[in-house]
Each structure stands twice: as C-alpha cells, then as structure tokens.
Automatic annotation (TrEMBL):
HAMAP family linked to this entry: tRNA_thiouridyl_MnmA
Record organism: Nocardioides dubius
Keywords of this entry: ATP-binding, Cytoplasm, Disulfide bond, Nucleotide-binding, RNA-binding, Transferase, tRNA processing, tRNA-binding
Domain named tRNA-specific 2-thiouridylase MnmA-like central: residues: 213-277
Protein name: tRNA-specific 2-thiouridylase MnmA
C-alpha cells in the first residue's frame, strides 16, 4: 500500500514509519506544521509544534530512507483544536484537545488529503491495535502496554477512518520501542515524551487561557460559594483557572467546619460562581453524553466499561443510546467516579475493543450516593 506516515518528531512516530517500510509499504513521511509561528504555542523539543521537532522528523525520515514533506495545517489546527479548547473552557467545560486533534486533524483533514493524493492509509505512532471482527468490520483495541495505551484518544474514529489507519506500535511496549529506535540509528531514541497540552508552552493552562481569552470571557471573576450552605467563602480571578475536582489553589482562607478539604463541584461561567464542597460530593454514577461517535455498528444498549480520563480507571457501566441520529447517550456507572467534568470524553469499551465515545454534557448522583 501507499501510506502516509505522520511524523511528529518523536520516537514513536519514527519507529511507526520504519515499521511500515519493513511491512513492505511505500511510505512517505509528513510533519504537520500546526503553528505558523512555532514559538506561538511552545518552545523546546517536546513532540510537536516546534522547528526542532520538524528537524527531528526530517532526520528520522532520512535515516529510514523515505520522502519527507511538511504540511501546513496551522489554520485548521487553530480553528478546530485551539479555538475549540478556548470556547469549551469559556463555557465552563473541560475539553480534551488530543481527541479533538485526532478527530479533526490527523484522521480527518490529513486523511482526506492523503486519500485525495492516492494514498491508501495514514500510519501513526499511537499505542493501539486494529483487528478485523467476525462481522468484517475493523475493530480498534487497546495497546498491550497499559501505561502507554492511547485507544482513549482514538475513540472518536469512525469505521471509515479506521479502515484507512495503521497503528504499528500497538503490540509493543515503550521501552522496546526506544531500544528498537536505537538499533535503527534514530537520534530520537531517547527524546523525552510530551505530557502537556502541545500548544501551551509552559503547562500553565489557566494563565494561557486568561491571556488568550481576555475580554471574550463572560465573567472574569466571581464568588467561591459553599455548595451546602450557600455561604460566600472567597473570590476568584476567573473560572478558567478551575476544573471540577480541583483542590489546590482555591485560596478560600478558612477550613470547612469539619476541617476536611473542599473541592470544586461546579462552575458557572456566566455568573462566575464556583461551588465547592466535600470530596464525597464529587462522586457521580450518572452521565449524559452528546456528540457520540461509534467505531463500528451503533449499539442500542450494552454492558460495557467506560474510561473517563486519558489514563484513568475503567468503570463498569450500562450504556444506552437514547437517540442515535442526535448522538446522545445515557451512562449508568456501576462503579462510581469522582471529579468528572462536562466536556471530558467518555470512551466506551467492550473488553479491549473500543465501541465508541461521547462528550460528557452532564453528570448526576443517584439517591444511592446521596
């Protein structure tokens, strides 16, 4: 097959491209320029968005012996990922930009262009596996390295996208990938992984959002209120500095009557009100989801597990599709979760297989948890 290897400049994508060559594919490497000004998002070699990363990707392509190009997706990335991230936070939600990037950029914009140019598939360095099911559909499964498994951020992919994707690293652990890169003579063999949001230079999400949003925020400050008594405990500089489940940085000034710490329970960006309360109030067992995306056949209802954070625990759940056309689901967690915020993704699994995902629109507690 003619395949396009998305090369971020990191070790994973470099080895994925090399393995695609070993598999007999005709491989072309591309690096995505996600910012016209590389320093506008971050500096330092961290896995994307920098000139250093582009150079690392080019050197890896030279060692592997494949053609290499840089594709400018800066406008699309800013509109579909960065603007979406800001808008979600301004609305009091907590988005995952990696899912949005996979959905809108790597497996939509890039894949569309690749197919238009005559390529058969896009290969990436994600730790996930593909298999053909008994129904003939392509299934997305977890990678064998539990600590590096990235199936969660791929839960937005459709059957059509999976059919044109390759994930060569899913059957390998990260230490094995680094050792392989060293054997292949790839200079990125020991390059550090990126753990922060790629377009926020110093990892200070709150400061970055405050600077970028500016007057677009409906309310740049407000009260911190006790959820039980309604008492105003303090004030804050803006809702974007907070997320559901946060404990540190509340600056309330005095402890709760029982001496236990308080946590952020809800965020209202219009009024600027942040409600805080005890940890047990964070426990939820009901989730409403919107924008559901399915990797294969749309289920009506299923017993499943649900993962609510990129490397979070799995929760046993009953998932009901309430409106397939509108993309809405209801999830009953048999194992309650804590600190889950609207905007996060609920990725649904049947064993190791990814069934699909939904964006969390609301959470609730049943009477059993009250």
């Amino acid at each position: 097959m003619r395949v396009l290897a998305a090369m971020s400049g990191g070790v994973d994508s470099a080895v994925a491209a090399a393995r695609a060559v070993d598999a007999g594919h005709e491989v072309t490497g591309i690096h995505l320029a996600l910012s016209r000004n590389p320093k506008s998002y971050r500096t330092g070699a961290r896995g994307c968005c920098t000139i250093e990363d582009s150079n690392d990707a080019r050197r890896a392509a030279d060692v592997i012996g494949i053609p290499f190009y840089v594709w400018d997706f800066s406008d699309r990335f800013h509109e579909d990922v960065v603007e979406d991230f800001m808008s979600e936070y301004a609305a009091g939600r907590t988005p995952n930009p990696c899912l949005r990037c996979n959905e809108k950029i790597k497996f939509a914009a890039v894949l569309d262009r690749a197919l238009a140019l005559g390529f058969d598939a896009v290969v990436t360095g994600h730790y996930a596996q593909l298999a053909t099911g008994t129904d003939g559909l392509i299934e997305l499964h977890r990678g064998i390295d539990h600590g590096k498994d990235q199936s969660y951020v791929l839960g937005v992919l459709s059957q059509a996208q999976l059919a044109h994707s390759l994930f060569p690293l899913g059957d390998t652990t990260k230490p094995e990938i680094r050792a392989e890169a060293e054997r292949r003579g790839l200079t990125v063999a020991h390059k550090p992984d990126s753990h922060d949001i790629c377009f926020i230079a110093d990892g200070d999400n709150a400061g970055w959002l405050e600077e970028k949003l500016g007057e677009r925020m409906p309310n740049r400050g407000g009260d911190i209120v006790d959820a039980t008594s309604g008492e105003v405990l303090g004030t804050h500089r803006g809702t974007t500095a907070y997320t559901i489940g946060q404990r540190k940085g509340l600056a309330i000034g005095r402890p709760a009557p029982d001496g236990k710490p308080r946590f952020v329970l809800s965020i209202e960006p219009v009024s600027g009100t942040i409600e805080v309360g005890p940890r047990e109030a964070l426990r939820i067992d009901r989730i409403s989801g919107i924008r559901a995306r399915w990797c294969g056949t749309v289920p009506s209802a299923l017993d499943a597990t649900v993962q609510l954070r990129a490397h979070g625990d799995e929760h046993r759940a009953v998932v009901t599709v309430t409106d397939a056309e509108a993309g809405t689901v209801e999830i009953e967690l048999l194992d309650p979760a804590e600190g889950i915020a609207p905007g996060q993704a609920a990725v649904i699994y049947d064993g190791t297989r990814v069934v699909g995902s939904a964006t969390i629109s609301a959470t609730a507690r049943s009477e059993a948890l009250r």
